[in-house]
Model the fold of this input.
Amino acid sequence: MFYEEKCTLCGECLMKCPYLAYPEEKAKAEFKKLIEGKPTPVTAECITCAACNMFCPEGANPFDLINERQEETGTFKVTDQSLGMMSMASQLPSEVKKGKPGKPAITLCTVGDFLPGVIEGQLFDGLTVIKGGDYFCKIGWIHVGKPSEVKKGIKAFVDDLAKTGAKEIICFHDDCYAMLTTKAKEFGVKLPFKPIHIIEYLRDYVKANKNKVKKLNMKIAYQQPCASRYTFQKDKMLDELFKLIGVERVKREYDKMGALCCGGTMAAMVNVPKEKIEEWRMKNLMDAKKHGAEAMVFLCPLCVLSLRSRAKAQELEPYILSNLVRLALGEELTQGGAGKKF
Ligand code: SF4
Ligand code: SF4
Done:
């Protein structure tokens, strides 16, 4: 939600945006137009990475306003294929696979088992697994310029998860956690269960099983998903987890505040040429290499699909975070680190 009363029209959001990078006066003027509901190129050019919600020094959530204007004006153009995929996600077959009594549940949303071999091993042993269209978190609608679908869908999403009877639900997908924490609060939807981020679950598992961990002594670059802009407070837990498994997260330009989109949101837009998307992806990967990373670690399965082969081609071994933890626990990754054997 955009908080107009907090906005000082400083322009920081559009100046710091890596994709727009407006000069100060233009940034101030265009943001004013957004507030006033006047036409501005921002609505067509913004790639919906949500980063400016973190850039705003006042906590006004500028992206939420941009996204609303994108929907109102229809100036944000996405491919029919991306729109179709969003609609299809809710229609996917749903399943609740009961686990062992006393163990929490994990929701995979519609993307958790996109990658073969990922939901395997001791980390997932005995958990109740929830997945499919009924449990699609819908926050992805922001990336096709339709945030009203997020508001429309949140109650049903929470109700469907509640119907499983689980009291604690681990969110494998970062988007689900953003929806259940930030968005639920924003729209006044109460949760009858506790959402636990996968990073918190992994950290606590490793802490409780320290004797099983063999430190990896690896330098990695982290690909932060866009949804993490809504719940950045958990980043400290991620650093704790990396330390526990002996992984150094290289300090680089395109991480944390400076993180870049994996290219997935841009690929959905009709006005971003393929070469431009590749340029951004290469900047990201080269930044990782330049800072000494030997592997690229992902949290979001969609970021994996977008970047794993490109990372591998640059000699950055791709891993989804849970697989990196499995490696530290001495498990064999039968399908590679990121669901593909190269
Ligand atoms: S959401 Fe991302 S692309 Fe859009 S204005 Fe904000 S920082 Fe720029
Ligand atoms: S939304 Fe935030 S960063 Fe953007 S102009 Fe307003 S106060 Fe400045």
Q: What stands out?
A: The chain has three domains: 4-73, 80-198, 202-328. The chain has 14 helices and nine strands.
